[in-house]
Design goal:
The protein is an all-alpha fold and 404 residues long. The chain has one domain: Growth Hormone, Chain: A (Up-down Bundle), CATH 1.20.1250.20. Helices cover 81% and strands 0% of the residues. Helix 12 packs antiparallel against helix 18 and helix 14 crosses helix 16. The longest helix is centred in the middle third of the chain and has 32 residues.
Length: 404
């Protein structure tokens, strides 16, 4: 495909606005993780409380994706995204002005930050509806690259907290959020042809199909692993290896960048060899990497290398899942994006919270990592169980040109 035809096909300002909104929203969605070392020190949090603090925005974001998806249908994407941004900006402004003084207050802020995590259900339809089928992959790849916002939080959050205090980081975040909000209002535009609103019954109808549950499970492992680690690794590197918050943030950013940048590559590889084959390799690699780090490697640099491998495999898995979903649920892709995205967030909540509880109860992160490695293997077993049926029904060569 030539570049000119893609630029002529859709609405570039809207695509750029969707990316910026998604990127900054994901940055603030996980910001309690990179700030977690300083917050936990000041508030005297236990390992379990630290895990729950970073996991709460992930769960809230997962559940709110469903709500935001419904609002997109009824209010259109641009207005829904604007409402979401105002809520997040207001919550951060309140936290900055009044401070966070207890574990319970971190959880309340986490619930509001979940609105930022739900941006997934807004940014993708906002961009997608402007582009014809042959350009969907490119458009969603550009908009979906906003996953990299999670790395920005890890890269800058701990250093800014060390210089200005972690409460003031909430205020500093308002600067880019405000600029992007203004740019979004000026640049984003709803596509002329928006599908009619879906009823709640249409969401529930999809859940009667067992393949919908398989996709939700598969994504809960790939995206759940990605966002769960993105939220937890700063605290992990600090606790396990004694790295200061700033260096732990840099280590986390390296892992998150790896997982973010390969998502489009994972989708492209799935196009070439088939999503099932691609996902099978991903789950094996993720299970092996998580099992290796579970033993508590002797060096933080060694752990970083293995975590990068884990994030590379999970990031590619995210792309592979969404190569398969549109083949199976072409007519219900909006509904399935919301449901599968929600399941991914639930997986992230489980991993982030379980690592904290694992450390508190057993004194080690090993059980938390091993259980998630086991889930990756369970996903591999499930994929193996359905692949023959998928390749002989909706994925059969005479029904689709895509590799399944």
């Amino acid at each position: 495909m030539d570049k000119k035809s893609f630029l002529q096909a859709g609405h570039t300002p809207t695509l750029f606005a969707a990316f910026m909104y998604f990127d900054l929203a994901f940055m603030v969605w996980v910001m309690l993780g990179p700030l977690g070392v300083q917050i936990a020190t000041d508030l005297g949090l236990t390992h379990a409380q630290k895990g729950m603090m970073v996991a709460t925005p992930v769960l809230a974001g997962a559940l709110l994706r469903f709500v935001m998806g419904m609002l997109v249908d009824h209010l259109k994407p641009k207005l829904t995204g604007a409402i979401g941004q105002v809520i997040v900006i207001a919550a951060l402004a309140y936290a900055w002005q009044h401070g966070i003084h207890s574990f319970e207050e971190t959880l309340i802020l986490g619930l509001f930050l979940g609105v930022a995590g739900a941006s997934f259900a807004v940014a993708l339809p906002l961009a997608s509806r402007w582009y014809p089928p042959e350009h969907q992959g490119t458009a969603l790849g550009i908009a979906g690259a906003g996953n990299s916002g999670t790395a920005l939080a890890a890269l800058f959050g701990p250093g800014l907290a060390a210089s200005f205090g972690w409460v003031n980081v909430f205020g500093l975040a308002l600067i880019p959020l405000g600029l992007v909000f203004v740019a979004y209002l000026l640049m984003a535009k709803d596509a002329p042809e928006c599908p009619p609103p879906k009823r709640l019954g249409e969401y529930l109808a999809v859940l009667k199909d067992k393949d919908a549950w398989w996709f939700m499970f598969f994504y809960s492992v790939t995206f759940g692993g990605f966002v769960g680690l993105a939220s937890s690794l700063t605290i992990y590197f600090n606790t396990q290896y004694g790295l200061d918050a700033k260096m732990a943030g840099y280590f986390t950013a390296a892992c998150v960048f790896a997982g973010s940048l390969v998502r489009p590559i994972g989708g492209n590889l799935a196009d070439r060899i088939g999503g099932i084959k691609s996902l099978s390799v991903v789950y094996i690699a993720a299970a092996v990497a998580l099992s290796i780090v579970s033993v508590g490697l002797p060096s933080s640099w060694l752990a970083l290398a293995v975590f990068v491998c884990a994030m590379l495999s999970l990031g590619m898995g995210n792309g592979a899942v969404f190569q398969l979903v549109p083949q199976r649920f072409r007519k219900e892709i909006g509904v399935m994006t919301g449901l599968v995205g929600m399941a991914g967030g639930v997986g992230g909540f489980y991993l982030a919270s379980s690592l904290g509880y694992s450390k508190q109860v057993s004194g080690s992160y090993m059980p938390g990592f091993l259980i998630f490695a086991g889930l990756a293997l369970a996903a591999l077993v499930g994929l193996t169980a359905v692949k023959r049926r998928w390749r002989t029904t909706w994925g059969a060569p005479h029904l689709t040109t895509a590799k399944i």
